[in-house]
Amino acid sequence: MSLLCKAYPWMIVSVFAPPLPSPLPSMLIATSRPGFEPSPPRGPVDLYQRRYHSPQVSRASACTLHRVSFCPVCHGDAYLRRRVEKAVIGALKRLQVPRTMSVLTYLGADSWQEVLGHLAAKRKAWNEAHPSMPMTLTNTALDHIRPVNKFQKNSFGEKAMLCNHFTNLQPLLHEDNAWKGDCWSSDDEKYWHENIIFQPNMTRIYYPLSAPFQPSLLDSMQRHAVADVSTRPGTQPT
User: Fold this and answer.
1) What is the tens place of the pLDDT at every residue in 89-101?
2) Based on C-alpha coordinates, what's the Rg of the chain?
3) What are phi and psi of 140, to 5 degrees?
């Protein structure tokens, strides 16, 4: 009794209070009731959601068909716009330039339609020239034609505006973008100044001349080489 007198009230309540009911019986009742079906295993929808889900976007704009925030199939423009925004912000962080303006201002365009139309024109030009390996929204990376690291020695304003200008952006197949890296030469710099930057009519995909090769075109180059050898006099195709 002396221990109870010295104990705090909450200790006495905790000792003499009856135990709370376990949730296990209710779970058994719920799982045993007729019509209960367990949750299905992960299917194509879940895999699609994990691959293309963008947590930066509110659920209000989610695609109810594929259950993703910005669906590249149903909301192609919104999906591409989000990727452009992430590319611009990422380039500013790599160049250590604080963001003080809107993304559209850094792109140097009057509207998002101009930016998205420019990238769509580049994809269309590539697909017409290479129909066997078409570009889509999901098999391409958003590439800075003149690599971001090549703007490190530029002035503060050139880092912010030239690097992320929409004419310096292009879609590039993932394998080509991985092989390109930071390859850039004086010949690439000259061509970039004369034909690419501030030239919205330039719709051809540009790959640096200093890059070892372009993986997506390697198969076609080999086919052309075999065709040239087979058409030479005194040779037979193997």
Assistant:
1) 999 999 999 999 9
2) 29
3) -125, 155
pLDDT at 157 (0 to 100)? 84
Contact residues for 167 (Cβ-Cβ < 8 A; gap 6+):
108, 118, 196, 197, 198, 199, 200, 202
d(CA 72, CA 217): 25
In 100-144, DSSP assigns E strands to 140-144
- Residue ranges of the domains in the chain? 63-210
Amino acid (one-letter) located at 106: Y
**Per-chain mean pLDDT for the chain:** 77
DSSP-assigned letter for residue 68: B
- The alpha carbon dihedral of 186, 191, 192, 193 has a sign of positive
Cβ atoms of 42 and 34 closer than 8 Å:
no
Q: How far apart are CA 67 and CA 70, in angstroms?
A: 9
DSSP helix/strand/coil, 169: strand
Q: Which of helix, strand or coil describes residue 172?
A: strand
Distance between CA 207 and CA 205 in Å, rounded? 7
More confident residue, 19 or 200: 200
* Residue 16 pLDDT > 80: no
Q: Alpha-carbon torsion 67, 69, 72, 77, what sign?
A: positive
